[in-house]
């Protein structure tokens, strides 16, 4: 999950879309976006025209709902910044997904390409490592993870990556809280609403990126 305070689960999902047309006229399976909570899913859907969104639940407890035959799995939602270079409303496109236990990090698919597409749409975007934890990170733990190089903490991406197997994975988090902007503070409501507006704007870039990914124009064609 993100650092969002809403815990209600929306377990609805839609099937994998047919995807873009390749040069020989055949359909190529497209990506699926994964969101922890219904409010995140509803926000990101606003900017999507052909990409389905699966609600995987808090800590991705319903990752079994994800399809096995799509071009990529994209985790999208809110997150908590670990360093001061990211402020509420900024977007982190993960270049790798880590866990605090030190397991091997999972590299993300074409993160710089995805970040560039979002920057084209006027979003404030940075790239860097994301860490998946089992709880909301705050205080000293935030500083420890930041010292290890992670830039945002959340609760689903590593679970989704484990489910993905050989499928390419991407992760996009809109910052809600961070150093100097604690989660449990009256200002979180306004930050959450602002982050939701940002999340609703990432869809067009995701879909442009996905077309380039399945065509192999990023240099690493989807497997």
Automatic annotation (TrEMBL):
It comes from the Bacteria. Coiled coil: none annotated. One of its GO terms (biological process) is nucleoside metabolic process. Pfam families: PNP_UDP_1 (PF01048). Residues 70-178 form the Nucleoside phosphorylase domain. GO terms for molecular function: catalytic activity. This is 1-hydroxy-2-methyl-2-butenyl 4-diphosphate reductase. It comes from Actinomadura darangshiensis.
